Structure formats: C-alpha cells, structure tokens
Amino acid sequence: MNHFQNMNFDIIVISLRTSVERRVRASRQLDAMPFVWSFQDAVHGASLPSLPDEYDRKKHLHLLGFDMIPGQIGCFLSHRQVWKKCVETQRLTLVLEDDFEFQQPLSKVLPIVFENLSHFDVLKLQGLKEGWKYKVLRNYGKNQLVKHYHDTFGTTAYFVKPESAKVLLEKSKPFHANVDDFFGHDWIHGLKILCVLPYPVKPCGATTTIGCFDMRNGKLNRAEKLLIKLRRLPRSFTKKFYRLRTFPKLYFQKIK
Predict the structure, then answer these.
(1) CATH number of the domain that 76 lies in?
(2) Angle CA 100–117–177, to nearest 5
(3) pLDDT tens digits for 51-95?
(4) Would you give the DSSP letter of residue 67?
(5) I need a surface site. Which of 140, 143, 159, 216 has the fewest CB within 10 A?
(6) Is-above-0.85 flag for pTM?
C-alpha cells in the first residue's frame, strides 16, 4: 500500500470560500487519509461583473435556446482553474467537488489508477447514471475498470493527467455547455474517459451551490424547439461519425 501512497499525485477540492460546512466535511474526510490535499477557491458565478470570455453564450443559445445560469459558468471556470494548475505542476490530479463523499477508502482505488495510467485520459470515480451500459476492461475484486457506452455525467470526483488537462483547457476555450456535459463531448476533446465501478465517490446530497435552473428560462414553444433540433443536426452528425470511427478502438480493444 505504501507504494501507492508515495506515488506523485495531487488532490484539489473545488469549493467556494464561503461554503464553511462543506469545507469542514471535506477536510474531515481527507485529513483522515495519508495524502496531501488543498482547496481551490471556486469561482462564484453570480459575482462575476460580466460574462467571461471563456463562455460562448451565442453558441449556447444557438444550440439550446436558453442561457447558462451563473452557477454553471462559475463551476466550469473553477474546473478550468484546476486544469491549469494540473498543467503547471505536471502532476496527476484528483479533482473533487466539495460535496464528495467517499464510499470506500481512496487507498483501495489507487492500484486501479496507477496500473492503468496508460489506458485512460480521465478516470471518473463518480457518475450520475449508474445503470448505463458499459464494457468491463479489468476486474479488481469488488471493483471494475469500465468504459461506458454513453456519458454518465457528474464531475464530483475524477483523476486527470497533465496532458489531458491541457486538452480540456484548449477545447473548452470557449465553452458552450456545463462542465458535466462537456466531459461527454468526446467528439470535441477526443479523450478516453474510463470509470471505476461501483463508484468509490458519491455526492453527499448537500444543497447545490450552483443554483437552481429557472425552468422559465428553458421553456421553448413548439416552433422554437423544432428550430433548435434543426440547428443541432450538424453537431449530431459530427458526434455520430466520430463515435462510429472510434468505436472499434474504444470498445473492442482489450486491456491485458
């Protein structure tokens, strides 16, 4: 076990500076582990004086017909800050959002991480769609290394490599979707995202700090919905072509 504890990786927890209770809960979990970690002050989207250059509002409106809420923008900017730090330090990084809750010790997961560094770009320890289909790449007793056939959403906990963080930065400037959706845009970033099942981390169920989506903001009439579908057709073709082209490599290639 000491072999994995001595591996070089960082743990960064994204958290609003004002989220005292969340920080206490996060600290309690991580301080009980023999790993160095730190907080990354999250961007408070509602406090931004104007829309950031990184956000492509025009494209988001074009594809969805409504705007991102400030909390979603701030969340994406916060993850980008961590990706920048990962590139600067050139260290494997475990990114955690401050509502994380470990379901099993991190030390039990590290062998899966380090034995498969050459096989993933991003390794997710959490996802929202637990029942979605996947291919098992390796078995680790109660855990499995898997590749899902569809994005499982969720960015509460994931390992990212420096070279992958660089790609995420480059492909998200500008961004036109929330960070959960962006991870599933493989036709844009081209990264191989694997998962550990059952998920070692889950959200603790705390009230979101991103803010609630105003349903009136996303309520479109029938004509507007049809227009949005037509606008998204080119993207849909691009996505399907990319996945058809990469399907053999992603889903039939075995890991020995």
Answers:
(1) 3.90.550.10
(2) 50
(3) 999 999 999 999 988 899 999 999 999 999 999 999 999 999 999
(4) P
(5) 216
(6) yes
